[in-house]
Structure formats: C-alpha cells, structure tokens
C-alpha cells in the first residue's frame, strides 16, 4: 500500500508541477502540494522493506513518471474526434519536457540522498527514536530536491527572483509536511534489516 501511495503521489506531483501557482505571495509549482509526503512514504518503505526496496521504488517511480509523460505526449499528438470538444487536453497535459526531466532528476537524486541519510542515521547514530530518522533524512533531501528541481525546470526561463521564491516555498511546504507526517513512521512495523539490528 505504501509503495503504491508513493508512486501515485510522485505521478500526481509531476502532473501538478506543470502549473505555477501563488500562495501567500510565494510562487510555487502545484506539484509541491502533494510531493512532500513522498519523502516520508519512502522512509516507510525503507523501514519495512530495507534499503534495496527503497532504491527500487525510487527508480520504479522515475520510470513510471517518464512513461506517463511519454503517454501524455503521444495522446496530445493524436488527432481528436472533431465531434467532441477536447482542445484543452494538449494544452493541459502535454508534458513540458524540461519540467518532466527536472522533476525526475530531482526526485531520483534527493530520494537516493534521503535513503542514504536515513540508513546512516539508523545504523550509526540513533535507531531508537524513529521520528528522528524522518526528520534528519528529510532535512537533507528537501532543500536538495527544491534547489535541483527549481533551477533545472525554471532557471533561465523565469526571473531569478521567481525561481528563488519557488525554492523557498518548496522548502517551507516540504518542511511543514515533514513535521506533520513524521508520526507516520510508527504506522508500519520494521522489516528484516531493522529487526536484525
């Protein structure tokens, strides 16, 4: 269930990232409204299935997002039935490849870093308080994800001030989601790797 929720959240975030919204004066890609929960969902997969399962999930989500973007691009190019009004499909869901690629690169890099931070924290620092592993791993990966995504997707296209606003708003929203989502780590039981410790 957690792996499915992770991939679904990744897909919804990538579709949402095609629109820049404004909340409280901050520019924000709409995918950020759902994407932050993926860090905690990945932590849950890591806890139950181990590091190999977490890494596999990250690459599976990246491939799924790439396939989704390719499918939307194909469908947007296919001729529509003239008796049905559907001109907006291509304008809404045809991928902006720069955003898609930036999103996938940022997701893979930040989620792999999150996985390593989580693993190192559990193995070498403090395994007892599970909420700390979520807090620490997300504290490393959230700013990294926000910087990589915003500058790859929008650098040179939007004004630098808007890009920095996207970075800051992403970090703030993802940080708040981390704090709200931290208790989820107690919902699942540890898998083989953590039981062995």
Can you characterise this structure?
The protein has 197 residues and is mainly alpha-helical. It has one domain (2-22, 31-191). It is built from eight helices and two strands, in the order αββααααααα. A hairpin with a 2-residue loop joins strand 1 and strand 2. The two termini are 25 Å apart. The model has no long low-confidence stretch (mean pLDDT 84).
Mean pLDDT: 84
In percent terms, what proportion of residues is strand? under 5%
Would you list the SSEs in sequence order as H and E?
A: HEEHHHHHHH
Indicate the overall shape: globular
Number of helices: 8
- Radius of gyration from the CA trace? 18 Å
Strand segment tally: 2
Q: Give the structural class.
A: mainly alpha
Number of domains: 1
Largest sheet, strands/sense/barrel: 2 strands, antiparallel
Low-pLDDT regions: none
- Measured as a percent range, the helix fraction is over 70%
Terminal Cα span:
25 Å
The strand line-up of the biggest sheet is 1-2
Key features?
single chain; 197 residues
Please render the helix and strand layout as text:
Elements: H1 2-16, E1 20-23, E2 26-29, H2 37-49, H3 51-77, H4 88-93, H5 97-125, H6 130-154, H7 160-181, H8 192-196
Antiparallel strand pairs: 1-2
């Amino acid at each position: 269930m957690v792996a499915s929720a992770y991939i679904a959240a990744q897909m919804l975030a990538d579709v949402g990232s095609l629109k820049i919204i404004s909340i409280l004066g901050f520019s924000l890609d709409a995918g950020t409204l759902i994407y932050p929960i993926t860090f905690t969902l990945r932590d849950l997969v890591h806890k139950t299935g181990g590091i190999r399962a977490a890494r596999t999930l990250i690459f599976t989500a990246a491939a799924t997002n790439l396939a989704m973007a390719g499918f939307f691009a194909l469908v947007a190019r296919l001729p529509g039935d003239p008796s049905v009004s559907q001109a907006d499909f291509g304008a809404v869901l045809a991928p902006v490849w720069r955003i898609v690629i930036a999103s996938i690169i940022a997701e893979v890099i930040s989620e792999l870093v999150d996985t390593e931070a989580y693993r190192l924290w559990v193995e070498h620092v403090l395994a007892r308080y599970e909420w700390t592993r979520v807090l620490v791993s997300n504290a490393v990966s959230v700013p990294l994800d926000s910087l990589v995504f915003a500058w790859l997707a929008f650098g040179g296209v939007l004004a630098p001030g808007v890009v920095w606003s996207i970075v800051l708003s992403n970090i703030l929203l993802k940080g708040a989601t981390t704090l709200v989502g931290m208790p989820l780590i107690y919902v699942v039981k540890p898998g083989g790797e953590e039981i062995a410790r």
